[in-house]
Amino acid sequence: MNQQVLDREACYRALLTRDARFDGQFYTAVLSTGIYCRPICPARPPKIENCLFLPSAAAAHQMGFRPCLRCRPEVNPAKQRTWAGSNLVDHALRWITEGAFDDDCVEHLAERLGVSGRHLRRLFARELGTTPIAVAQAQRVLLAKKMIVETTLSMTDVAIAAGFGSVRRFNDAIQRNYGRAPKTMRHTSTSNGNMTAGITLKLPFTPPYDWEAMIDFLAGRAIPGVEAVDAGKYARSFQWDGMHGVVEVQQESETNHLLATIYATEVPPIGMIVARLRRLFDLDANIGMIDAHLSADPRLAARVRERPGLRVPGSWDLFELTVRAVLGQQISVAAATTLSGRLVATLGEPIKGDFGAALEKTGISMIFPLPAAVMTANLTPIGLTRAREKALQSLATAVHEDRLFFQPQPSPNKTIEKLCELPGIGPWTAHYIAMRGYRDPDAFPHSDLGLLRALETKNGRPTPAELLALAEAWRPWRAYGAMRLWVQPKILPAAR
């Protein structure tokens, strides 16, 4: 939903009913109070003549509205954007969130995206009703508010973790946006949070959410030493500019959020971690719309009824996912996991830092190898063929020498084409990477044997071409259709 298509009457109806389906789809700026809210705000709804409906929190910030302290815009699930919108805006938002925009220079960001600053500003105005700088500033403020309320980090550490250049800028921004000093917003006077002991944040989503399916999928593909799944919890190591850490994620029962506990050797860029976790667990999907769309096909209707809220697992890092995808070509998931573990044991870096029980509980001990470690390594001792070794070396070299290797392409098809230019990467692998790494909701590896088997009938299984044709009805959510066939291969289609 962008600024051009916001329906004033529809937005007001959603506001009056506090319809959770619209949470993150728009914000209500109240002219009489100077505050902006989520559609589900428990406060008494304002009169429609006092409402201004905006497509993003950043647009409200830019216009001088303050975030509501009751509905907390900093904890709402973001709206999912599709490739049908602006792929460039999606990647710009990703880099802004991960700290690639700390200098607030639009030209530098535009250069990374291969466009002019003027063009990028025009795209942001069209899609989000605001500017890249306003988006970055709003994200810092909302992330800081989230950490003030949900953690016991000192205000200095909150300022660092949220990406403010100084404590003074942090204090000024909070005072300007909330009309209060940061310390007065904390419900407890305790301020001795320690990153090595861990801090916990809430990651909201719009229900339903099939956590069991998500955690089972990740468990089968967890990279030994780097990732672990145990007792319904997912954990993994990470590194950022030489800093090491571990993050654990679990579902909190009967709530619409996951809990992420972050351990690190120093204060990390929390925004980067939160953004990667949201992609990994597909927290911003408009799952109600997706399930409703897929239910229109009798082949999927029974599957949706049995397991509503099935998401597409994302990735923590594109290089890591691509390596794992190449290792998994034409072998079982278990065999690919074994090879991944050998690669990590041979080329990975041991975790630095004493996280005590966090490491003991998970068995995590390594950081996934960086491209520089893979590009010249002899990989045949870990059990790879020469062709597979060459494919990984070529990938690592490309990523190491080109920091923009994974930059967005003009269209999903162009992304697939670029990936297929690398040795050892064919259409199936490219679609899988687009599906999980680039978060393309319409990526579809139609030649996958598991997908073909899932739709087999007494008359036989479809050919890849036939599967591609029947999946046309699932657009633009074919990736979610693929996940259902992988997770639910035995569900019979509903009777016609």
UniProtKB/TrEMBL annotation:
<keyword id="KW-0862">Zinc</keyword>
<keyword id="KW-0238">DNA-binding</keyword>
<protein>
    <recommendedName>
        <fullName>DNA-3-methyladenine glycosylase II</fullName>
        <ecNumber>3.2.2.21</ecNumber>
    </recommendedName>
</protein>
<dbReference type="Pfam" id="PF02805">
    <property type="entry name" value="Ada_Zn_binding"/>
</dbReference>
<dbReference type="GO" id="GO:0032131">
    <property type="term" value="F:alkylated DNA binding"/>
</dbReference>
<dbReference type="GO" id="GO:0032993">
    <property type="term" value="C:protein-DNA complex"/>
</dbReference>
<keyword id="KW-0234">DNA repair</keyword>
<dbReference type="InterPro" id="IPR051912">
    <property type="entry name" value="Alkylbase_DNA_Glycosylase/TA"/>
</dbReference>
<dbReference type="InterPro" id="IPR009057">
    <property type="entry name" value="Homeodomain-like_sf"/>
</dbReference>
<keyword id="KW-0489">Methyltransferase</keyword>
<keyword id="KW-0804">Transcription</keyword>
<keyword id="KW-0479">Metal-binding</keyword>
<dbReference type="GO" id="GO:0043916">
    <property type="term" value="F:DNA-7-methylguanine glycosylase activity"/>
</dbReference>
<dbReference type="InterPro" id="IPR003265">
    <property type="entry name" value="HhH-GPD_domain"/>
</dbReference>
<dbReference type="InterPro" id="IPR023170">
    <property type="entry name" value="HhH_base_excis_C"/>
</dbReference>
<keyword id="KW-0808">Transferase</keyword>
<keyword id="KW-0805">Transcription regulation</keyword>
<dbReference type="InterPro" id="IPR037046">
    <property type="entry name" value="AlkA_N_sf"/>
</dbReference>
<keyword id="KW-0227">DNA damage</keyword>
<dbReference type="Pfam" id="PF12833">
    <property type="entry name" value="HTH_18"/>
</dbReference>
<dbReference type="GO" id="GO:0008725">
    <property type="term" value="F:DNA-3-methyladenine glycosylase activity"/>
</dbReference>
<dbReference type="InterPro" id="IPR018060">
    <property type="entry name" value="HTH_AraC"/>
</dbReference>
<dbReference type="GO" id="GO:0043565">
    <property type="term" value="F:sequence-specific DNA binding"/>
</dbReference>
<dbReference type="InterPro" id="IPR018062">
    <property type="entry name" value="HTH_AraC-typ_CS"/>
</dbReference>
<dbReference type="GO" id="GO:0008168">
    <property type="term" value="F:methyltransferase activity"/>
</dbReference>
<dbReference type="GO" id="GO:0005737">
    <property type="term" value="C:cytoplasm"/>
</dbReference>
<dbReference type="InterPro" id="IPR011257">
    <property type="entry name" value="DNA_glycosylase"/>
</dbReference>
<dbReference type="Pfam" id="PF06029">
    <property type="entry name" value="AlkA_N"/>
</dbReference>
<keyword id="KW-0010">Activator</keyword>
<feature type="domain" description="HTH araC/xylS-type">
    <location>
        <begin position="90"/>
        <end position="188"/>
    </location>
</feature>
<dbReference type="GO" id="GO:0032259">
    <property type="term" value="P:methylation"/>
</dbReference>
<dbReference type="GO" id="GO:0006307">
    <property type="term" value="P:DNA alkylation repair"/>
</dbReference>
<dbReference type="GO" id="GO:0003700">
    <property type="term" value="F:DNA-binding transcription factor activity"/>
</dbReference>
<dbReference type="InterPro" id="IPR010316">
    <property type="entry name" value="AlkA_N"/>
</dbReference>
<dbReference type="GO" id="GO:0006285">
    <property type="term" value="P:base-excision repair, AP site formation"/>
</dbReference>
<dbReference type="InterPro" id="IPR004026">
    <property type="entry name" value="Ada_DNA_repair_Zn-bd"/>
</dbReference>
<dbReference type="InterPro" id="IPR035451">
    <property type="entry name" value="Ada-like_dom_sf"/>
</dbReference>
<dbReference type="GO" id="GO:0008270">
    <property type="term" value="F:zinc ion binding"/>
</dbReference>
